[in-house]
Specification:
The protein is of the alpha+beta class. Helices cover 22% and strands 33% of the residues. The protein folds into 2 domains: 91 residues, Ribosomal Protein L25, Chain P; 90 residues, RNA Polymerase Alpha Subunit, Chain A, domain 2. The chain has a 6-stranded mixed beta barrel with strand order 1-3-2-6-5-4.
């Protein structure tokens, strides 16, 4: 079951472009949604926030303390700086201890390197890494574990039907496809051939795209005029606009 994660938050009055100053001071702006109350703008220290975000992820409940008041929540989104790899913003959603919630958890393959297939020189690849489940917060597992030890030949595979869900946990989909493949066994030569074929298709598609960019396949007389001139990346939001909404 899940570990107990906790984080102390302070209410935040700074918003918009001014949150950049908070980040420079080692603070992470955040927001807490949920219930019948308005969202609460909050902030917390970078080190402790990063630790909780990394360990709890988007599936483990977090015990929040906001100006002395306690709330239980899960992380709905984490904004990370793509260059500095620092947490820039976190959105929490409050939940109730006895309320069944839906969330995504990882599927961990156990016994990697110990299967009969791998010992025979075959390759085991994971095809499905996450699945949505529903459970009460106290019953949520950190991950679903599945052993590959019994895989022996290229005819063998693991599907969702092989996953043993913990007590109190169900798949989120009402009619979950249990035949979804989680792991397959491949001959190295067959896998290499697949990769080379996929690379060839990608190169061909890329060449077609270059031709279109050069105007070889694109009619020039019926193109709509740009509604927002500015060239490449014109529709990408600026960080200042993102901050203004936080």
């Amino acid at each position: 079951m899940t570990n107990d994660f906790s984080l102390k938050l302070d209410t935040r009055t700074v918003a918009g472009k001014k949150v950049a100053k908070l980040r420079s001071e080692g603070l992470v702006p955040s927001v807490v949604y949920g219930g019948h109350s308005d969202p609460i703008n909050t902030q917390s220290g970078l080190i402790e926030t990063t630790k909780v975000a990394n360990q709890a992820g988007k599936h483990s409940p977090v015990h929040l303390t906001i100006d002395g008041k306690k709330k239980l929540a899960i992380i709905k989104s984490i904004d990370v700086d793509p260059v500095k790899h620092r947490v820039r913003h976190v959105a929490f959603h409050t939940i109730k201890q006895n309320e069944v919630i839906t969330t995504e958890v990882s599927i961990h393959l156990m016994g990697v390197g110990e299967s009969a297939a791998e010992k025979a020189g075959l390759i085991v690849l994971q095809a499905l890494e996450h699945v949505e489940i529903k459970a009460k917060p106290a019953d949520l597992p950190e991950a679903l574990e599945l052993s590959i030890v019994d895989l022996a030949t290229t005819d063998d595979k693991l599907t969702l039907a092989d996953v043993k869900l913990p007590e109190g946990v169900e798949f989120a989909a009402q009619e979950q496809d249990l035949e979804l493949v989680i792991a397959n066994v491949y001959e190295p030569s067959a896998l290499q051939a697949q990769n080379e074929a996929a690379a060839g298709d990608a190169e061909e598609a890329s060449a077609d795209a270059v031709g279109a960019d050069n105007g070889s396949d694109t009619p020039q007389d019926n193109q709509e005029e740009e509604s927002r001139p500015g060239g490449k990346g014109q529709d990408e939001p600026k960080q200042s606009n993102v901050d203004a909404n936080k």
